Amino acid sequence: MMFEHIATCRTYTDDVKRIITGSIGFDDYEWGISLFCDDVLKIKKLIYEYKI
């Protein structure tokens, strides 16, 4: 599953920047990803192209 994720996202690495944050809660680990881009449609294409 991770190889598919990496292959899909690789084409957007020049246009879409990301910040990955993480924290530890009482029971498990939490993480989040923030996406930044000059053109919001590129983020939309990235999200809709990657389907689980």
UniProtKB/TrEMBL annotation:
EC number annotated for this UniProt entry: 1.3.98.5
Pfam family, one: Chlor_dismutase
Keyword Heme recorded: yes
Catalytic activity: Fe-coproporphyrin III + 2 H2O2 + 2 H(+) = heme b + 2 CO2 + 4 H2O
SUPFAM superfamilies in the record: Dimeric alpha+beta barrel
UniProt-listed InterPro entries: ChdC/CLD (IPR010644), Dimeric_a/b-barrel (IPR011008)
GO molecular function terms attached to this record: heme binding; metal ion binding; oxidoreductase activity
Domain of life: Bacteria
Pathway: Porphyrin-containing compound metabolism
Entry keywords, A to Z: Heme, Iron, Metal-binding
Required co-factors: Fe-coproporphyrin III
PANTHER family referenced in this protein's UniProt entry, alphabetically: COPROHEME DECARBOXYLASE, HEME-DEPENDENT PEROXIDASE YWFI-RELATED
Name under which the protein is recorded: Coproheme decarboxylase
